[in-house]
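pasting for the record
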Amino acid sequence: MAEAGYPFPDPEAAAEDLSRAYRQDGDSASLRRREIAVATADDECALRAHVPATELALRRDGAQSLPVTRRRELTDLGAVHCAAYRRAQPVVGDLAHAQPCLSSPEGGR
């Protein structure tokens, strides 16, 4: 986020700063714009650092170490996630920054 001009050492510090601003100043159009700008910078930073892909790989590795019954439960949960993802697309458009449908081994939609 430093590349985008924000002084926050991590996303939690950004969230704390924005929360403090909302508590002190209340809701305003300028604060909402600032929040959107900070969130966008944070998301772009995470994407450049491959955070979503790394998180997904860690989740998959962890899931493989679970007993078969738990893996089945995760597969069922993945199917629910996939259905919700597909149902939301016509309403909100392409969810490029959302996690893809996780029910298939390759994580495809």
